[in-house]
Design brief:
mainly beta
């Protein structure tokens, strides 16, 4: 959920992260840089990622929701508390 400085909320849904659907083994990590539509200079973002755990045999396991806590967005590049 992207919220701009006026309180307007935009929900973003879709598969993958920046067009990718990484498959990670235990101990691996994935990072990326992204952007989002924002009508004001500042705002916030929060939400979740839906992930699927792989079983040791490589088969798909249960779905897991990973919560992303609210964080600040700043078009000017300033650090926000």
């Amino acid at each position: 959920m992207i919220t701009d400085a006026t309180g307007r909320v935009e929900e973003v849904r879709g598969p993958g992260v920046v067009g990718e659907q990484p498959i990670l083994s235990p101990g691996q990590s994935f990072s990326y840089t992204s952007g989002c539509p924002l009508r004001t200079r500042r705002g916030t973002m929060a939400g979740e990622f839906s992930c699927v755990a792989l079983k040791p045999d490589g088969e798909w396991g249960e779905a897991v929701e990973v919560i992303v806590g609210k964080f600040g967005l700043d078009a000017d590049g300033e650090t926000m508390a």
